[in-house]
Amino acid sequence: MSDQIEDIKAEEVAVGDRPLAIPSELPILPLRDTVLFPNSFMPLAVARESSVRLIDDAIASGKLIAVFTQHDAAVEEPGQQDLYTVGTATHIHKMFKLPDGSLRLIVQGLARLALDEIVSGQPYLRARVHAANEGTNDADRLEIDALARNIKTNFQQVVSLSPLLSDDLQTLAMNITEPGRLADFIASSLTTISTPVKQEVLETLDIRGRMDSLNRILIKELEVLELGSKIQSQVQSEVGKNQREYFLREQMKAIQKELGEGDDQTKEIEELAEKVEAAGMPEPVKKEALRELDRLSRMPASAAEYTVSRTYLDWLVALPWAKRTDEVIDLPHTLEVLNNDHSGLEKAKDRILEYLAVRKLNPDVKGPILCFVGPPGVGKTSLARSIAESLGRKFVRVSLGGMRDEAEIRGHRRTYIGALPGQIIQGLRRAESKNPVFILDEIDKLGSDFRGDPSSALLEVLDPEQNYTFRDHYLDVPFDLSEVLFVTTANVLDPIPAPLRDRMEVLEIAGYTEEEKLKIATDHLVDKQVKNHGLTAEYIRFTPDALRAVIRGYTREAGVRNLEREIGALCRKAARRRAEGDEAHVEVTPEVVGQMLGAPRFLDEEMEERTKEPGVAIGMAWTPVGGEVLFVEASRMAGTGSLTLTGQLGDVMKESARAALRGCAPTRASTASTPTSSRAPRCTCTCRPGRFPRTALRRA
What we know:
Layout: H1 10-13, E1 25-31, E2 41-46, H2 49-61, E3 64-69, E4 86-97, E5 103-120, E6 126-131, H3 141-161, H4 168-174, H5 179-189, H6 195-203, H7 207-236, H8 244-258, H9 264-278, H10 283-297, H11 304-318, H12 331-341, H13 346-361, E7 370-373, H14 380-391, E8 395-399, H15 407-410, H16 423-431, E9 437-441, H17 454-461, E10 470-471, E11 478-479, E12 485-490, H18 498-502, E13 505-508, H19 514-532, E14 540-542, H20 544-554, H21 561-579, E15 586-588, H22 590-597, H23 606-610, E16 616-623, E17 626-633, H24 651-663, H25 668-673
Parallel strand pairs: 1-3, 7-12, 7-13, 8-9, 9-12, 14-15
Antiparallel strand pairs: 1-6, 2-5, 3-4, 4-5, 5-6, 10-11, 16-17
């Protein structure tokens, strides 16, 4: 919609000395956070649909409306109870229509109105009104004249001190002789006073009372402006041009102090003080926290050190200094949880139950540091989780694999940018308890470089005799770790330094046997994979023979991770069938396993087939995650007596091969008897054809 401008001639709205005829019923335009005074012009924005309709009708019928201010600006459809009782008869001077349908008005207040009754709410408010006549007493004429002079003087000073008011307002105020009109003009010109205060001036019909009220408002406003000017002068003398932000903050603090209001920084300090008192810190730690808090309270919020101190205090109050989880030691329940979650592992379960039994008899005993050592996939981490579940403690896990920085354990000092506590303190904050089950995973994969040795930093953490005063570099106060049940895991013990290994009780978890794998698959893995792949036990069923076929022919590991993957592969193929519309029940048998997974990767008959013919010896290879059978073939052939070894062979394998060659080397006599023979020298050792020399059977 294009803009439309309605030009109104001046004489149509001029009042002069003629009395203003106010109808007994007028349409009402509600105002938000705005008070219109008589004899003043004001721009208004109209966006409500009902208000736009009201203005359109008013333009067509005489341009006289009544405006009343709302108590609450958030009310969209105000009623009589939502409007003040005194408003203003208003003439619409100009109207502008904007493309979005809203209106911009220039209106003139004519006279005070009193609201009698709302007679209609649709399509807009209409109400019965009457003129609110102003009153004065001839006996108060002298006081009114004195008040008028004071008001003009105070208003001049306010205009001169306020950057928001134009200097032309002084001249306009000096030319107004009517006391009531002077009060209305000044009240409408003050932009810093609130809407309720302006409404109070509008509702004061007694001219002397109105001027008295306005004089008090001006005096208060003048005091605030003079104080602001004084503060500005004081602060400006202390700061330079490059500290404008600091100046504004200091000015705001000074104003709030004079008004008796607390600033945000003061409230923040008070909240931190309450948190320090409620944190339950030991006395030395509390003393350090209060010292840092006192230092923070004297520091300006704009200082670079402020954020560092505030973050440090946040860490102190967030740590569980006195929070602990009430553990319930129930040995039968613990055994039940361990048996439900893990098959086998009898040695580890017995040691856990022994520890809990001792702790039940002596709650103050210092807990051991258990270290579960075994191949991947045997359940080391899940065993620690089951311990936490059976005790009712919180569970925290930190992976140490690849960690090379000592600060990851002890934290960074606060002098560094972006400093944080170490993983031990961070884990306790996440747990919100000072006695969780804390698992340090992959402790054998710790590294070290120029940034320090994390394994050495763990010595204090994992020593029950000294970890009750563990001191993180960031906190720099002691924290008691004696109630934490630390559990570590490793694949092999060799990479763990001897001093660190000495502080832990090692429980070796060997690989599972075939029967144990079958039980784990039946009790845990099958149900888990069936559920993860959106299947049900009614749709797919695994037979024990099928699981044995998977264990024997498709996995060869100490743990059960690959077994779980193969079961997942079978479930995926079954899920694809069902997604393609085949709702037939699937029973996984050894034949179905062969069809879905292909030919077996491992054959039990290989050893028997390979050893049928002479010249093959059986060897064993050991690895941290299990073992492997080696087939060593020996053959008799012509040659020159030299040996070339290729491939990635270990030193023991190379030594064994050289020893075997020396055991079968041709004698000097045999070579000398046929110097010109074209045949290669033959082996004259005592080994029979098809048998491997004894020296080659050394352990790899």
